[in-house]
Amino acid sequence: MQPTATVLVYSDNSNTREQVRLATGRRPAPDVPVVQFVECATPAAVVRELDKGGIDVCVLDGEAVPLGGMGVCRQIKDEVFNCPPVLLLIGRPQDAWLATWSRAEAAVTLPVEPVEFAGALASLLRTKRLASA
After folding, report:
1. Distance in angstroms (rounded) separating the CA atoms of residues 49 and 51
2. How far is CA 70 from each of CA 27, 31, 34, 67, 127, rounded to the nearest angstrom?
3. Of 122, 98, 49, 12, which is closest to residue 88 (Cα–Cα)?
4. Phi, psi of 31 (to 5 degrees)
């Protein structure tokens, strides 16, 4: 059986969650595991899923309403033990400094550009795999 990676995707917008799934495909790169998704539309659902464990990477929508991914990222980095790495979806390249403030490990702009997104996600999955080894 092939190993899988679990990616949590938070956005109040189902189209954004779909863009993430489509940009990832079965796996974002040949050297990382097949991805399965856990989708969340509320910050409370994100915390519940992280409390269950088993999440390898979080993808958080910085443009989500009522609480954006930057605020959620900052919260989970403070509150979740061994918080998985976070890939933040930001509205403008100029918001990269806010992604740093939120303690996200990576950020890409919306709308999701498949090659850029898959590369960033694969990099976080590789880092997570190395940290777990």
Report:
1. 5
2. 25, 29, 27, 8, 21
3. 98
4. -95, 10
Would you say 34 and 83 are in contact if contact means Cβ atoms under 8 Å apart?
no
Q: Give this prediction's pTM.
A: 0.95
Residue of 16, 46, 87, 114 lying closest to 96 (CA atoms): 87
pLDDT digits (tens, 9 = 90+) for 6-44: 999 999 999 999 999 999 999 999 999 999 999 999 999
Note the residue count of the chain: 133
- Residue 89, number of CB atoms within 10 A of its CB: 27
